[in-house]
Automatic annotation (TrEMBL):
Name of this protein: DUF11 domain-containing protein
Source organism of this protein record: Candidatus Woesebacteria bacterium RIFCSPLOWO2_01_FULL_39_25
Residues annotated as signal peptide: 1-23
Membrane-crossing segments per the record: 198-217
Segments of skewed composition (Low complexity): 164-178
Region Disordered, residue ranges: 160-179
Keywords: Membrane, Signal, Transmembrane, Transmembrane helix
């Protein structure tokens, strides 16, 4: 009985301390003066290879005395390659488990993802995971995805606020939920998969020839 109580207490301690030990790449705080903490690029990566996964995180803390709701939005920018965004897979997690979105980047770029509600003094943590499937070929060499991200915060009174990438807190609250222009510039590129495959092929051949040579030397010594 005591053992069961101890295990239950330990489980509750781990769950309750999750938000405290979570280290996010961006920390958004919303109070009565507005929201801030989402400035600067969340992703800025290049040289993805088949099998690679990139993950970035952000937290949102509600310090207001009213609940708020969150929506994650993305927008495609010029220069994005169509076949690349159809291959890349995006997944959005909440608090390390609950999935808010899962699909190709093509769908991610046109989706308004509901991140849920935050009660007063509540904090939630989110992760955006971007994966490049292992079966991708040379047709994806040099391809890029260029996109913006934004978070729309809606108050209990219906007012909305959109976080921009401005380094100063110039966000405004209004009933107009229009998205600002460039928010989070993001570029994902693909390295030369052909060159990597050749290295792996020749490396495998080298290992095979070395193994055969060692066996021949060993046989000659025994003879």
């Amino acid at each position: 009985m005591i053992k069961r109580i101890f295990i239950s207490a330990l489980f509750l301690l781990v769950i309750s301390s999750y938000n405290n030990i979570f280290a996010a790449d961006k920390n958004v705080v919303c109070n009565n003066s507005g929201c801030s903490g989402f400035s600067g690029s969340l992703f800025s990566e290049s040289g993805m290879l088949p099998g690679d996964t990139l993950s970035k995180t952000f937290s949102v803390k509600n310090e207001r005395n009213e609940p708020i709701s969150l929506t994650l939005e993305s927008e495609e920018n010029a220069g994005t390659d169509e076949i690349f965004k159809q291959k890349i897979v995006a997944v959005v997690y909440e608090n390390g488990g609950l999935i808010k979105f899962s699909g190709t980047f093509e769908n991610f770029l046109v989706s308004d993802i509901a991140l849920g509600n935050l009660s007063p003094n509540e904090t939630k943590n989110y992760e955006i995971s971007i994966s490049f499937p292992t079966d991708a070929g040379n047709e994806y060499q040099g391809k890029v995805i260029n996109f913006d991200l934004s978070i729309t915060i809606t108050g209990d009174d219906g007012s909305t606020e959109v976080l921009s990438s401005s380094t100063s807190n110039t966000n405004s609250s209004s009933n107009n939920s229009s998205r600002p222009g460039s928010i989070l510039g993001t570029i994902l590129g693909l390295s030369d998969t052909g060159g990597v495959k050749l290295v792996l092929i020749f490396g495998g051949i080298g290992i095979l020839l070395t193994s055969i040579g060692l066996k021949l030397i060993h046989s000659n010594r025994r003879g």
